[in-house]
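User: For a benchmark we're assembling, each entry needs the component sequences followed by a predicted structure for the full assembly. Here are entry 17's components. Please fill in the structure.
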Amino acid sequence: MSTHVNTLPPVRNWRDIQQSIPLGVMSSEGRKRLQVATAKTVGVLFALGLVGWGLYEGLQLWEQNPMAIQSPVKSAPVKFVEARSDGVLDHGWVTRTLALSKTVGLMELDLYALRNRLLESGQVRTAVLTRKFPETLVVIIEERSPVLRLRAQVGSAQAKDWLVARDGVSYEGVGYDATLLATLPYLADVSLRRVQGRFPPIKGMEKVADLLSTAHANIPELYRGWQVVSLARFALDGEIVVRSNDIKEITFGTRESDFFKQVAQLDLIVETGHVQADHPALSINLAVGGSQVPVVFEKPAAAATTTTPGIKTNAITRPAVSSPAVRAEPQRPSAIFSTLYFPSREF
Amino acid sequence: MSSKTKYIGAVEVGTSKVTVMIGELSQGRSLSIIGFGECQSRGVLKGAVMDFRSASDATHSALLAAESNAGVRIDEVYLAQAGGHLDGFYNEAGVSVSSADNMVSAVDIDTVTRIAKSKALPEGRMVVHNIRRPFRLDGRLVPDPEHLVGQRLEVGYWTVHGQENKIADNIHVIRGFNVPVAELILASLASGTIVTSAEDRQNGVLVIDIGGGTTDYALYHDGCAYMTGVLPVGGSHLTNDLSLGLRLTEGQGEKLKLRFGRGTMTARDKSEKVWLNGDFAIGDRQFPRQAIEQITSARVWEIFEVVKKRLGAGFVPDRTAAGVVLTGGTSKLPGIAEAAAKVFGISARLGEAPGYINENLRDPGYSTALGLLYFGLNSSAEAAASGGRRRTGFLSRLFAKA
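Assistant: Structure for entry 17:
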């Protein structure tokens, strides 16, 4: 049956009619449409041919002399390095760090490797390298700002100062003004361990940076005396300890996100005369929170024989002073604590 | 035009007018009619092109009007095919189910359909449509026999064929506009699809499309077209009869037909006269109304009688429960439905386009063009749906050959 079916004569269908007709039989509109269609087809074929020819030529060139494709762009060596930075790093530093050969072509540069070379210095946060034809390499740098200094000894080398940025990255600072660096407190009581030749970021530096910027902005006179910022109790108790010229130990808590209150309390304690040159405070603990601030003073020389030196006694008592100090500048942070209770001195 | 939008043209080159509609086919699933063009036909007689240049000019004018109305260019055309040269026959074939478990396979279906369609045609004739009737598996009607169990699979086809030259002329008129003909569809099938519902076609319905030069008919049973045919008689013959009977010009006869013609006689008074123009100008004349009605109703009656005769035993009133549906320009003649009902002995009504069609396009004279657009939508949807459908593959054909 199947064989029979396959040998059946084909029945002519209307689709067997040839639809193409001579041009002369077409109406003027039909001819116009045909011309447009033909032009479109020719255009598409021409474009395809052009693309094909281009590909063929390119392929031929690549197979026969690949250097010929690269040479036009390789032939221009880098003449200029244009460096832009938002910090202190200058063109000289960038040029020295990149250490480009004088004959290297712009297209030969490995921008990724050059970028890594710049980032090796922790001072550079981001670096963008762009080829600007025909012969310029543009380097745009974003730098880290130092928050603290850190004295560290790496290997057998002499101990030297490192800078620590807000994100905890420590680096050797280049190009900073020495007087500016001298104002930065030192960071203490952190353990540094080199990993792959670099120090990993120090944890907690964001909090420290917030504290320092708050203090710098609101109590610049006190801040100037801050010498050391210790993170010894940071991991365990969330406390930052500051050692200053006037006060041996100022403890700040990090439980509250806002340091302004603690700074204001410190300012008020100092401002209201609780801490004086003849009765220097041993420690002020601002981490307790609330309105009570434990302050420990050094015993005067006369009483030193009756009290064991070095024993810290909490000074949380009822305030003896009821009249707040008259302030000329109410905008100071301590003004908000003018009606609060204060610790009394204990000798 | 987005890649998934196609503009299809439905073209009916009739004896009295050329109608073009443009449909915007979106994603192959929805169609909006966005353009319409109509032009008085020239060079076409009884649905066949007699003067190629005149027919082309008229058709191209209508195509241009539709394109400028739509503001787009037609991508392809669905063309209505009419004409007295069209004829049809029924041929059926049967095969024994080949598999050992008697489960009908795709190969069996392919074999039986190919045999049923393979009847040779006389010289110069070619197939326009092969309309399949439902399969019969061991005598029971089944829409799709694949995977059903039986021993004998039979199928029949109603094959519509026509004169090759005349079909080619029709296609070349469109090709002269440089637009491809995507489908050639029998005018009666196109109009029948739009004026009847699927339920009507399932119950059995006879659609008669009386145009200017031809009368197309399609008889539906069990949801598919059982018989189709074309009579080379239409509304222009009514006009001609009036011209001859009342000694009028063709224009005057047309005017009287439109104003006073009827499918059945109602005038009882022989002395009742009607004016030709009604403006009392020189040349205005009176004619007996009864004579006009007698002439038109006689021709209408004759058309229906011929259709009934052509259908022969295929027309069974009991199997045509949805009655007779009349469409086409001449179906607007008053009383024509009553005449059809009397001749066929079943209910008759005037066909109406579906409610979603614009009011301006619901005239019976546009049902063929609307049906063509409907075909265009369906064929696109089927093409989209069959994209991932399994077909009889290479291996099946290989085994069939073996």
